[in-house]
Amino acid sequence: MLRILGKTSSINVRKVLWACAELDLPFQQEDWGSGFRDLNTDAFKTLNPNAMVPVLVDADFVLWESNSILRYLANRYGDGGLYPSQAEARARVDQWLDWQASDLNRAWSYAFMSLVRGSAEHRDPALVQASLEGWTRFMTVLDGRLMETGAYVAGDHFSLADIAIGLSVHRWFGTPFEHPRLDAVREYYARLVQRPGLSRYSAGVP
């Protein structure tokens, strides 16, 4: 059985849990991270020298980095629905997965840590505002993309990209500030919350 190491309040851990739900894969989830088992131990660093979650253990294969884990699970256990084999379709999924990790998440990080987590290290009002402005800019990009497709970020069908981006959209609506009107994003989120994986692994957790 798959082992998934990481606490469920981690957005990156929830990506992996949601993917397992979409693929109907049994797994054992183990709480690691702040408030649970210590990541800064030799035993954990043997699995991930960065001392970060999630970590996937599949028999004798160990993998870290959440989007890499998504791709691995879909490649090994999927039928091509979440991660198509055709080059252009796969590249479109990869494009939005990379955008989520490199652009969208970096934009919301400071504001989320301040407004939701109450972090003492994220209390500068100017930086919170800058983070909210950057987050809004990228969400506007997403809104435009969803107006084009009328469905999901990579096209007509749900894919790995929607797992990663959908959880960031969940945080968007779960963070207390005045949200601009982005109708396509709101409609997209309404579609995503119908999927058991998102509702199961994000209930009550922004």
TrEMBL record:
Belongs to the GST superfamily. One of its GO terms (molecular function) is glutathione transferase activity. Residues 1-81 form the GST N-terminal domain. Keywords: Transferase. It holds the Pfam family GST_N_2. Coiled coil: none annotated. This is Glutathione S-transferase. It comes from the Bacteria. Its EC number is 2.5.1.18. Residues 86-206 form the GST C-terminal domain. The keyword Transferase applies. Gene3D superfamilies: 1.20.1050.10, Glutaredoxin. It comes from Bordetella ansorpii. The keyword Secreted does not apply.
